[in-house]
């Protein structure tokens, strides 16, 4: 892929490259909020282009994007990480990999002078911490903020940590400095080291809260037409309406595949750990009850932001 990207740099002009990614759309959310399902559904739109999954492999091409700094103070990236070469190369990797729902390569569209017409959609969980970086690389980026009931979300994060300890799935960092578990799952927000020795429910609640508060703060700096909000419960209970609304925000058509969706015919997310069922979170009810009081302010901020996005709460 690196050799192909190097060749591609000589075939595509800066203007053509910028045109493809003038208004990309990024899904941002806490881990395990349902972003994989949302991404999968939206990517079925005939007007949306993606690389087919998450961008971990793209980020891996840039060693300086491993974390905030060499000490891994967090996984957050800001504008200082987006030097000119990184900005160009990241767009080239996306261009080389992007396809539409029929597997038609985006590169073909660019070569035929239609790059400006595309809608590029991306979903990688760590992007929820990387607003400053994304704004430098993609100044016109738009955002879909997905949020989920903290009880459900925290329970799912806990399941991920439990599985990570057994199988390595969802593990994003190993051997963090002075971290006793030897592994870390999902996002690495600032101040993660304060969770040393704390139970999994507190780590999960910390990740949920930190991620949502960072997203809320970052989005508040944007004009209202650059972002929208969707709750996981609405996505599940009225998928057709929400998907059509979100496609409209992206500037894409929903197509018959999306407009015919109901709660009963939604596919399972590719990252599902156990089959969904009502009140599944109650498996961790006692642990979650111990952390919920500290999340009240964040929940209020989410509801306020959701209403401000023009979506009924």
Structural commentary:
The protein is of the alpha/beta class. The protein is 43% helix and 9% strand. The strands form 2 sheets. A 5-stranded parallel beta sheet has the order 2-3-1-4-7, sandwiched between helices.
Task: Give the gist of this structure.
The chain is α/β, with parallel strands linked by helices and about 325 residues long.
Q: Give the count of helical stretches.
A: 14
Describe the oligomeric state of these chains in a short phrase: single chain
Cα Rg: 19 Å
Q: Spans with pLDDT under 50 lasting ≥5 residues? A: none
Order of helices and strands: HHEHEHHHEHEHEEHEHHHHH
Name a few traits of the molecule.
313 residues, alpha/beta, Rossmann fold, five-stranded parallel beta sheet, two-stranded antiparallel ribbon, 14 helices, 7 strands, 43% helix, globular
């Amino acid at each position: 892929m690196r050799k192909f990207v190097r060749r591609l740099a000589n075939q595509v002009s800066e203007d053509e490259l910028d045109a493809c990614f003038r208004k990309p759309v990024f899904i941002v959310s806490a881990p395990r909020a349902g972003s994989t399902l949302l991404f999968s559904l939206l990517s079925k739109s005939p007007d949306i282009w993606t690389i087919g999954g998450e961008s971990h492999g793209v980020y891996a091409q840039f060693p300086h994007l491993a974390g905030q700094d060499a000490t891994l103070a967090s996984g957050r990236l800001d504008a200082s990480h987006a030097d000119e070469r990184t900005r160009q190369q990241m767009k080239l990797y996306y261009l080389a990999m992007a396809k539409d729902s029929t597997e038609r390569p985006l590169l073909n569209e660019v070569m035929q002078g239609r790059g400006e017409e595309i809608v590029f959609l991306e979903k990688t969980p760590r992007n929820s911490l990387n607003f400053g970086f994304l704004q430098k690389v993609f100044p016109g980026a738009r955002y879909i903020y997905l949020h989920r009931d903290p009880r459900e979300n925290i329970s799912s994060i806990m399941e991920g940590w439990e599985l990570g300890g057994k199988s390595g799935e969802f593990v994003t960092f190993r051997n963090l400095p002075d971290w006793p578990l030897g592994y870390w799952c999902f996002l690495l927000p600032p101040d993660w080291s304060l969770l040393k020795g704390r139970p999994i429910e507190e780590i999960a609640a910390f990740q949920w809260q930190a991620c949502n508060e960072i997203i809320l703060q970052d989005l508040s700096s944007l004009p209202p037409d650059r972002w929208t909000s969707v709750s996981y419960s609405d996505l599940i209970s009225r998928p057709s309406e929400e998907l059509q609304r979100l496609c409209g925000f992206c500037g894409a058509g929903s197509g018959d595949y999306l407009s015919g969706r109901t709660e009963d015919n939604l596919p399972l997310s590719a990252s599902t750990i156990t089959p969904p069922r009502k009140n599944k979170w109650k498996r961790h009810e006692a642990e979650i009850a111990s952390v919920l009081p500290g999340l009240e302010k964040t929940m209020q901020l989410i509801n306020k932001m959701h209403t401000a996005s023009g979506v009924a709460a």
